[in-house]
User: Fold these one by one.
Assistant:
Number 1:
Amino acid sequence: MEATSQLRQAVLTWLEQARDLPSIPQAITDVALSAQPEFEAVVNAVVSAAPKSEHRDLYGKVDGDWLPRWSTLLGSVFK
């Protein structure tokens, strides 16, 4: 339950920061959203709440490390 709470708080803080993006659709891209300062906290909270062993679809191998796929995360946040 604590991991879910941390994830919720990280996402809320991240979305608050994203409010500062220009309001034109071209500015609100997955790259722009993932560049927000709190996105790293979101990724860390996802790792804690949804480990790779249970949610392999959220992860991809990058430079030899298994990391959350930010494009998948962003897609699931905005569905």
Number 2:
Amino acid sequence: MPYWEVFLILSLPYLSRVVGGFIYTHVKSFSIPFIILGILTILQDEINLLFIVRFLIGIIFGLTITYALDKASKSNLMTGITTAGRSIGWLLSYISYSLIHNWNEINLSLIHI
């Protein structure tokens, strides 16, 4: 793949988080679609769907992050938990991948939780 396509694939979820945050500011209510996020994550293996799937994942991440920060701003304890949650998530994903070595199996196991 050319460099620009790889860059776009990797950065697309981060760029589309802005869209998710913008949507949340207008909707002001949100229910977190973890099952949809799991299905989209599994669909990343389909190269034909990769751009749209990563864009949608970014929108969902934008919604969840904005929702979490909105709720955390109303509680001091939650602010600390929310800001630490991202680091804890990265650590847990590293440990999961170190043990299982397959993102699809990790996603499938998380859907059952």
